[in-house]
Amino acid sequence: MPEFLSNCKFSDLIIPLIVSSILVYGHIKKVNIMDAFIKGAIDNIKTAVEIFPSILLLMVSIGMFRASGGIDLITKLISPITSFLGFPKECIPLAILRPLSGSGALSVFDSILSENSPDGFAGRVASVLMGSTETTFYTLSVYYSACKVKPTKRIILYCLFADLVGFIMSSLTVSIIYH
Fold it and tell me: Residue 87: which residues within 8 A CB-CB, separation 6 or more?
């Protein structure tokens, strides 16, 4: 066995194997791989340009919302209800941002884990919440912009209801499993 392969793990070979498989498959099917690649790249650039305004609007809105203190105000307003339901106060900003922004939610998640123990109730709820909910508005704006379809109010309500269920179940699941 060649020396470079003896120190190599299978995971190191996955990408080269995938690329090689694509090239071999294209050769067998007699596809001009370079032309197919260029056409795909052009189509993706067009799609990126078409969805960029939606993403820009979403990112600017989230930045303004965070900078204005809107998240802090909403947290203070709903914390009596969420504490009654057993949802940790530290996770409210995460629950607010998660449907809006993955990167914003990730920074809040990081601060929750930094300020609380990852093995504590708030850290566990935040971890389950991050894994069981979606960046709803980002996903809707990207997919619907790419398809050139307007989302209906009903779809948005269903998605937000699914997020709410994810928030409640994250707290309930952690309570059942760890307490």
Answer: 95, 125, 167, 168, 171
Predicted confidence at residue 4, as pLDDT, reads 57
Give pTM, 2 decimals.
0.67
Q: Report, as an integer, the average pLDDT of 116-121.
A: 91
Nearest CA-CA partner of 83 in 32, 125, 50: 125
Please state the three-class secondary structure of 107-126 as a single string: HHHHHHHHHCCCCCHHHHHH
Contact yes or no for 83/125 (Cβ under 8 A):
no
Show me where the domains of the chain are located: 52-178
For the four alpha carbons of 117, 121, 122 and 125, in that order, the dihedral sign comes to: positive
Q: Is the pLDDT of residue 95 over 70?
A: yes
